[in-house]
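Weekly structure sync, notes
Attendees: PL (lead), two postdocs, one rotation student
Agenda item 3: pending single-chain targets
PL asked that the sequence for the first pending target be pasted directly into the notes so everyone works from the same version. It is reproduced below exactly as submitted, 101 residues in total.
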Amino acid sequence: MGMAALLSPDEVAGALAELDGWSGDTREIRRTLDAPSFPAAIRLVVEVAKVAEDADHHPDIDIRWRTVTFALSTHSEGGVTAKDTALARRIDELAEAHASS
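Predicted structure, written out during the meeting:
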């Protein structure tokens, strides 16, 4: 038995409407960010890694020079849950902090 309920298509759509820059469906949500430099991209990934570890919920991360893509899905449930939308919000907060620093 899983610990997090899958979100319905309407719930995912509603969450995506509130998450700037995120896209996806019931299987996965994702966002791509451009950092000002490669070291800045890595700093963002390190901060996201700390938050993800604390939440025991880990995104798939793709780093291409200054471009970082975060993909979120609750693998144990086979799709998007509230854990994913919560982590997306935290990633947005960290990205915003990096953009203004």
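Discussion points:
- The domain at 27-99 is CATH 3.30.1360.20 (Gyrase A; domain 2).
- The longest strand covers residues 29-34.
Action: rotation student to compare against the earlier draft before next sync.
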